[in-house]
Amino acid sequence: MITSPAEARNLYSKLLVEFSKIIVGKSDILKLMTVALLSDGHILLEGVPGVAKTLMAKVFSQSLSLSFKRIQFTPDMLPSDVVGTFVFNVKTQEFNFRRGPVFANVILADEINRATPKTQSSLLEAMQERQVTVEGYTEKLDQPFLVIATQNPVELEGTYTLPESQLDRFMFRLIVDYPDHDEGVQILGHAMKDPEIPDVPKIASQHEILEVRDYIRKSVHVEPDVIEYIVKIVEATRLEETKIALGGSPKASVHLLNAARAFAVIEGRDYVLPDDVKQLAFPVLNHRVVLKPQYLSESSTLDNPFQYRALAQLISTLISKIEPPR
What we know:
The protein is an alpha/beta fold and 326 residues long. The protein has helices at 5-22, 27-38, 53-62, 80-83, 117-120, 124-129, 164-167, 181-193, 206-219, 224-239, 250-266, 274-285, 293-299, 308-320, and strands at residues 43-46, 64-65, 68-72, 84-89, 94-99, 106-110, 131-134, 137-140, 146-151, 172-175, 204-205, 244-246, 290-291. A hairpin with a 2-residue loop joins β7 (131-134) and β8 (137-140). The mean pLDDT is 86.
């Protein structure tokens, strides 16, 4: 039984050790992936081709003693290829439900934006309600249930933009950037030594993860003024009407609160600080805030790819105008 933040933090520390053996840098990405796992969220990894999005998702998943399925999304994939379908059994003369790959603890939805909107929507119920319904038959998913989706922001042909309802299911959109020079040298060093990806030892069991989740839910304290601070930050994205077409929903506030509690535990505390909220605001809000075309065209420059920096600057400006609790 988890009785202190130190025990919960130990899980992240062990993950970081094994993760760093294979992935160069990206410890910030791992921390937020761990936060999502411990706060019952889902993750969207976005970045240009070749920055190891899929590898990060696989290494993270394989380090957990959880069932894992990878779904490679393609334009010809059907919803039944994800959630499952009924198959006629000749022997019993009955239709039996055959589970799809969504029935696992960790799902890697690789290149999710290559699937049609119809197939993308097959994940909506699973991500929100942790259950699957096919032809009136409903089956609960095992816990924990985590979707790690990847997508490429630069390809247009053969891709389908994720709608706002789908994006809102993700706790975080994590931007995977290019490595810096030193990291690039380390990557080539790893490639020269052993081109094969080594086996990843199992770090945490299903029981341990659920125990940490339970500890976070019951024991991490959030002051009322910090809750007020969270609401003000999300509200600010809706009140900024000159630059933002769509702001954060109430669900964004819930995700920010839950993420802040898990983040505090990873930092070794059983209480949330305003700084925790500030650090998590961008990954929680960046895929929920839709910029107006006029502001986007004004802020677009050669050093501002894919709106990321415009979003980061705008969200940072909005937060700076809100007085944090003392």
